[in-house]
Design goal:
Pfam families: Guanylate_cyc. By secondary structure, the chain is an alpha+beta fold. The protein has a single domain, classed as Alpha-Beta Plaits. About 40% of the residues lie in helices and about 30% in strands. Strands 1, 2, 3, 4, 5, 6, 7 and 8 form an eight-stranded mixed beta sheet that branches. It is globular and about 45 Å long. About 5% of the residues have low confidence.
């Protein structure tokens, strides 16, 4: 029996990739710890996603592919996620410290079978790979038309698979956005998990 082709929809979305900066696991205990940290990363992402909006498209090897209606919402989420991670690290032991790279682009995407494809997705992935641990990098398309937090313009980058260099910006999160109540919620969840052991 031949399966019917999956329906495709095309739209313009704000696409975000998150990636946990992993350490090379050399022994089984380190592999277990790496798995636990990935689970903690997932909990932080999903907790914020449920409050800030946005959609989880899929889990990647090191993080998530997320989609938002507009660039501003993606940036607000990215800033909140990095802040939540700083709160987590402030209470975590040295071996449980985590760092994330986040990349965001706004562009055309193709949605099919619950996944997302297209040049916009590829560009967001390339921008995430450029980002340094603990930072949020965005494309010029994200910066247009929004009152975004302060950003540092980086040099134009020639990204693999793209014809033209892309201008990339690093969002400066500290003090750039008001801290919503969800930060307090994240702190309380972390404290509760620690109390339960």
């Amino acid at each position: 029996m031949v399966e019917a082709p999956q329906a495709e929809t095309r739209s313009v979305s704000a696409i975000m990739f998150t990636a946990m900066v992993s350490r090379e696991a050399r022994v089984p205990a380190e592999e277990v710890l790496e798995g636990e940290l990935k689970e903690e990363h997932a909990r932080l992402v999903r907790e914020l996603l449920s409050r800030q909006g946005g959609r989880e498209v899929k889990v990647t090897e090191d993080g998530f592919l997320l989609a938002f209606e507009e660039g501003l919402k993606a940036v607000q989420f990215g800033v909140a996620l990095q802040e939540a991670l700083r709160c987590y690290n402030a209470h975590a032991s040295s071996e449980r410290q985590m760092a994330l790279r986040i990349g965001v682009h706004v562009g055309p995407v193709v949605c099919r079978g619950g996944d997302m494809f297209g040049e916009g997705v590829n560009l967001a992935a390339r921008i995430e790979a450029l980002a340094r641990p603990g930072t949020l990098y965005v494309s010029e398309a994200v910066m247009k038309g929004h009152a975004l937090p302060p950003a540092l313009r980086l040099r134009r980058n020639a990204l693999k698979g793209l014809r033209l260099p892309v201008e990339v910006f690093r969002i400066e999160p500290r003090g750039a956005l008001p801290r919503p109540a969800l930060f307090a919620r994240v702190r309380s969840l972390i404290a509760l998990r620690r109390a339960r052991g």
